[in-house]
Amino acid sequence: MIRKFHISVSAVVFLFCIFCNPLAAQGDAGIILRSRAMIKAGKTADAVNILTAELERTRSEKLLTQRADAYLLSGNLSAAINDLNEANKLSEHSGDYGLAQAYAMKGDVKTSLYHLSQNLGSSYKKTEKELMLNPAFSRFENSPEWRQFWKKDWYSFPERAAAEIEYNVNSGNNAEALNILKELANNYPESEELLYSEVLIFISSKQFNDAVSAALKLSESDPGNEKYLRILAKAQYAQLNYAGASATYTRLIDAGVPDADLFLQRAGCYRKTREKEKSLRDIEKYLELYPEDKTALSLAGKVESESGDNLKAIEYFSRNLSLHPDDKECYIDRANSYLAAKSWAWAVKDYSMSLDLNPEDPDAWLNKGLAQLGSGKTADACHDFRKAYSLGNQKATPYISKHCLDR
């Protein structure tokens, strides 16, 4: 039986607020981003509520499949199946992967594999890696039906080869990746999988100009392909073409790709091009969804610090520390801002806290020494410089030569 959900007062207020912020302008993507943030925070019922409210305004297979995901997490399989069947009516096969998961969770192997076969023959096709890592299918991975299912070649040679190349590149095994690439090039020289694999290997080999050139060809062959745009942005960033990377991330965001990390990635590009306001605007969009995220708060502080506003930077770093009090990097971030602001004693205190958590950090020892030196504690500074040097930080050498040879 489908469980009934009633919209809470908080959800009503929330719905009112979404039309007053930038994420609301993203339509389906904005609602999906918020629902995913709610699910991550354990507020699955609230995610269902805002999706239900939006679905009363407009029917969309993306909204339906997202609500189905929330239902699956809450164990409401019947409601999930209803949504996924409706999604299939709006866009053929858009709900089949979810239906395969739902029926797997119900223990209905036959129906699950039917929908999985429908997915694998469609434009919504999932990768083999995604399937193998999905816990829903682990329930029957040793069954005769599952073994029989995989006797069919659901993935072409180029698809399998590209997946193996990606695995080897990520594992640092470029030699094996190149061997597979040669075989792929010999048999399928015109395939997009070959071009995509070349981009991966170029990036891994630090041949960034070649990586961008190949990635541009990919994106031109299929301008709306999310996977190709992502690899293009990665290659452009590695090439130090931060303006190009930010433009590519903008294409992904404007296309309605519901991934909050895109805002953070674009913010990192804007940071590199010294576009402070754009960078902070993207970070705040991300923090609207994940207000306690360590990476986003750290990035915001660094953007403020690099623009010269150390007080604002310290606010972000202090907020991060209150949320992550046992994280050495959070102490390092704030200590660096104190050092830049010449607040020597505060810098020494934070570097000391970070070193309590990681006493083998040569950069923290060096910077702590600089703060000690700034506060006039030369003997303490020399201790820290020598410690930094003993841990391999050659930057300590001139400070030791200038301040510590007679000590």
Report on this model:
It is a single chain. With 407 residues, this protein is mainly α. Among the domains are: 9-153, Tetratricopeptide repeat domain (Serine Threonine Protein Phosphatase 5, Tetratricopeptide repeat, Alpha Horseshoe); 156-240, Serine Threonine Protein Phosphatase 5, Tetratricopeptide repeat. The chain contains 24 helices and no strands. The radius of gyration is 26 Å and the shape is globular. The N and C termini lie far apart (80 Å).
Q: How would you summarize the topology of this molecule?
A:
Elements: H1 9-18, H2 28-40, H3 44-55, H4 61-74, H5 77-90, H6 96-106, H7 109-120, H8 128-133, H9 144-149, H10 157-170, H11 174-187, H12 192-204, H13 208-221, H14 226-238, H15 242-254, H16 261-272, H17 276-289, H18 294-306, H19 310-323, H20 328-340, H21 344-357, H22 362-374, H23 378-390, H24 397-403
Helix pairs in contact: 1-3, 2-3, 2-4, 3-4, 4-5, 5-6, 6-7, 10-11, 10-12, 11-12, 12-13, 12-14, 13-14, 14-15, 15-16, 16-17, 17-18, 18-19, 18-20, 19-20, 20-21, 21-22, 22-23, 23-24
